[in-house]
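Forum: Protein Structure Q&A
Topic: Joint prediction for protein chains with partners

I've read a bunch of threads here and the consensus seems to be that you should model interacting components together rather than docking separate models afterwards. I'd like to see that in practice. Below is the full input, 997 residues plus whatever partners are listed. Could one of the regulars post the assembled result?
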Amino acid sequence: MDWSHSLRLIAPEETLSIAGLILLLIAAWGGDKASRLISILAVTALVGAAFLVAPALCGGHMGPDYSAFFGQVHADAFSAFGKILIYLSAAATLVVAPAFFERLGAMRAEFPILVIFAAVGSGMMVSAGDLLALYIGLEMNSLAAYVLAAFVRTDGRSAEAGLKYFVLGALASGILLFGMSLTYGFTGTTSFAGINAALSGGLSNGALFGIVFMLAGLAFKISAVPFHMWTPDVYEGAPTPVTKFFATSGKVAAIGLTMRVMLDAFGDQSDAWRQIIVFVALASIVVGALGAIGQKNIKRLMAYSSINNVGFILVGLAAANPQGASAMLFYLVIYVAMTVAGFVTVLMLRDENGENVEEIGQYAGLSRTRPGLAAALAFVMFSLAGIPPMFGFWGKFLVFKAAVDANMMPLAAIGFAASVIGAFYYLKVVKVIYFDEPVDAIKWKSDVWHKAILGVTCLFISPLGYLLSGWLQGLTDTAATALFHTL
Amino acid sequence: MTGFPILSLMLLVPLLGALACLFLEAKAARTVALLATLVDLVLGIALWMNFDVGGAQWQFTERLNIFSGFTYALGIDGIALLLIMLSVFLMPICIGASRSIEKRVGEYMAAFLLVEVFMLGVFMAQDMYLFYMFFEAGLIPMYLIIGIWGGADRIYASYKFFLYTLLGSVLMLVAMLWMVHTAGTSDIPTLMAYDFDPQVQTWLWLAFFASFAVKMPMWPVHTWLPAAHVQAPTGGSVILAGVLLKMGGYGFIRFSLPMFPEASVYFGPLVWGLSMAAVVITSLIALVQSDMKKLIAYSSVAHMAIVTIGLFAFNVQGLEGSMLVMLSHGLVAGALFLCVGVIYDRLHTREISRYGGLAINMPRYAVFFLLFTMASIGLPGTSGFVGEFLSLGGIYQVSTWTALICTTGIILGAAYMLYLYRRVVFGEQKNADAAAMPDLDARELAMVIPLALAALWMGVYPESFIAPMRADIAALDARLARAKPAGDSAPTPGKAKPAHEEAAAHGGSH
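Posted by a regular:
Agreed with the consensus. Here's the joint model:
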């Protein structure tokens, strides 16, 4: 375990960090005029980093050989899986962002750089092997995210979103830190492997409190009920590309981190936290679905939809075994694709002045004025609702299969039944765009990059996605195995 | 059983047609849709011709391991074959009945062809998850058909249709997950022979029942059907009544009965009770309807109740009868909706009281309408009689009371159908516009004549339809034998006596 080996293992992070610093210099000298160039370079760096981590996933790297800096960071297949998702969705954000910001005159050179640093932090979150690395990654991601949420300085809603996100995020970090300090106090170590070993004799009350507080902090980060209240406001107020970034990269990072903590550090204590996860999962499914019904703004609807989806993902965590972890990862891939497609569609829905149209009522009759966009949105909605043969069904199917295989029939039955509530509001969007008389509010023609991203993601969530299911299942199984073999 | 993947081809043809229709303008889309459904009909006939009656149970099997978690496995037995034939037979008629659709024709045709793909998939699937996907997927195009091209209250009807059926199905999926977890395979033929613990069977049976009872639909979860039927366009009603309702019956015969024989028998009285209630209540409701489509929709619920009592009679007569009722109802209810559609296209109202005396200005229409009315009542010689008689005969062996109550449905059925016929076709011509309606044209004749011929064929020579499924029904009966209830009819077969003794016994105690 020498330093050079460790440094080699974190090559993707180094690449991105150095790229970020260089771009920062370019931004300092080039100013906002250079923002397009910086965006292109940042996308290149992110895609390059994704290629750098790919061998770890395809090669199925796992175990102590791939653990850097004495267990602080794991560069195994699980991290690689999370990082590829994070980097690619960050790159997708940068591709669609300029068109949005340029209209507002708010495109700044710092935007791509902040996204890069947030992506580095997210990458650290999914590869953390120690409470310290966890916290550094989390804060690195969060601090960049707070700024990103408030990025449109002229827009009051954006500033409000940034402030809300910051205050509540800081509170959650505090709760998380409190849980971490309790855990440290009762186990005497900050490394996940050490915590797991120290708890093997049994769980003291103090350590149990540590788990509960850490879970509370993490639930805030993944926007699970009952710590979800910030989500709709932040999602609505933040600039749409940033919302997309939160809902994809940020979500993957937070869920990956939760999996690391719960399955690595507290993996052997799953009986202690399972009931909490079961409650959080069901509550998220129900509250997310019920909250979405009354929404008139598509971004708020997507926010509640993300709460709802997190509930489904957590069903896999309740199983607390490799099958459940694999199902969660599979769900995440599909969820990221659906979310990217959804937000790119929202970005493309503009009126004749290029203003983004976020009110769902304005989409009435979209299927007649813009059939392609309407079909894409309908794909996303049916997929989010988990109606077969859309690929979104398969994610739900896998997490519930994991729950049933782990003998958690009531969880599966209630969760599935609650998914019908969710179907209602997704159907409502389809109803507006297909059944209602056209209002013809959408006039804007988007550029080819938006269409390319939308096309690829829509093909993925269409029934054609099942053709990839064998390959993806192999990858998620590898990643899940790696997660259970880090110690 | 050639290696030719005819089943996949039957799925592929309408799928490609649907994609093409999305990009075509109205006239071309109609042609493409009609061609695609006709090609499927020809393929279906080829399927029937090549089906080896008395051969292997599962024929034309295809198996591809291209997905993780489930297999693309297709294959049919006699039961599936008949329902596939019904689907491919009704589809061109539905396309033909959609002449009055004028807005968004391409999308309409695409949605219909997708419905066909998913329906056929349901009957062909040999993997439980694949079955579930097809079963659920049909909701999406049907939701769009009702919601976009439906009547005034279409939004409510489309939601009700979608959410009702979805809620039933997700419970079934949980049960499927458990079954596959326990049995270790999602292969339907294997699961049909797998013996689940009778204790667990009750839960599994209830979960499947939740789905199939809604799809069927059984009283009291039938309320989505009248709403959906009334609002759907004519073609949608035909396919809804003709084939989609059969998915519930198919589900019972494919899953509930063979996979959970003990639970099926245990819950038999529940099904009988619901069916009895359905027959009487929905028939009485049908009697007072003033909307033609609603009347036929309620009569569908009553007919489906005859299907369920036949299925849960647990004997060969009942099972064969319920299959025949399903096929016959597919033809006859489809034809009746078509008849309603014909006059709706002319006058744009479904109010019974707006019509009257159509026999004077539409004699050909009156003849066909009468034929289908009689078939719906179950007049001997028409398709309705054979199935209903067998079903009721089957249930009589098990529960005489159920048979008694359900038979009143036939009488009530005659009452509401003849009453409808009298008000629409006979009597005096009250309204000038109704009196001025032209008779059936060539297109409409081309749609009703095949239906009429099929209904008569099934009534006069049902053997053609019983033969392919005989072995499968026998196998199912054997599977149910171990749990079969005793029955209260106490049939006492008479002793066969040699012919010469008959004369001697004549003056005796007899």
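The radius of gyration of chain B is 23 Å.
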